[in-house]
Amino acid sequence: MEKTYHPKLGEITHEWYVADANGQNLGRFATKIARTLLGKDKPIYTPGVDTGDFVIVVNCEKIVVTGNKLDDKMYYRHTGYPGGLKEINLRDQLEKHPDRVIKAAVKGMLPKNTYGRNLLKKLKVYAGPDHPHQAQNPKPLA
């Protein structure tokens, strides 16, 4: 009879990966990042256990979407005041805050609980080609 394997804290290693968003499709790219954050590509993957890796995303302003999503896709936020619902379409969001586009797409693919919020902290998104994480020696994300 086979026993279920549960990784211990000392057995889990967290790697650093860098992903270039230049010319990538938003949804497919976010799926790849979410799988890496969750650790689903590792043989020691266990649901609910943080076996995933850190991901650095660069060039997020050069992400690509298909169809009319640039004008039709809306992002909403609330100021906290009555009548404070703000909306912005994808085209304007890419001009003002391109990092929020990737974060929102990946956030929607992670669990909606404390585990998912902790995984999102392991995602680092930058608009340009430079990032301050050279000391971690990130590998390119395949």
Would you write up a description of this structure?
The chain is α/β, with parallel strands linked by helices and 142 residues long. 29% of the residues lie in helices and 18% in strands. It contains five helices and six strands. Strands 5-2-1-6 form a four-stranded parallel β-sheet, with helices on one face. A two-stranded antiparallel sheet has the order 3-4. Strand 3 and strand 4 form a beta hairpin. It is globular.
Keywords:
single chain; alpha/beta; Ribosomal Protein L13p, Chain: A; four-stranded parallel sheet; two-stranded antiparallel sheet; 5 helices; 6 strands
Give the topology.
Elements: E1 16-20, H1 26-38, E2 54-58, H2 69-72, E3 74-78, E4 85-89, H3 90-96, H4 98-107, H5 114-120, E5 123-125, E6 139-140
Parallel strand pairs: 1-2, 1-6, 2-5
Antiparallel strand pairs: 3-4
Helix pairs in contact: 1-4, 3-4
CATH fold name of the domain at 14-65 and 97-140: Ribosomal Protein L13p, Chain: A
Question: What does the average pLDDT come to?
Answer: 95
What top-tier CATH class of the domain at 14-65 and 97-140 fits best?
Alpha Beta
**Total helical elements:** 5
Shape: globular
**Assigned CATH superfamily of the domain at 14-65 and 97-140:** Ribosomal protein L13
Q: How do the SSEs run, as a string of H and E?
A: EHEHEEHHHEE
Helicity level, as a percent range?
A: 25-40%
Indicate the radius of gyration in whole angstroms.
Answer: 17 Å
Distance between the termini: 36 Å
Strand line-up in the sheet with most strands: 5-2-1-6
The strand count comes to 6
Structural class: alpha/beta
* CATH A-level architecture of the domain at 14-65 and 97-140: Alpha-Beta Complex
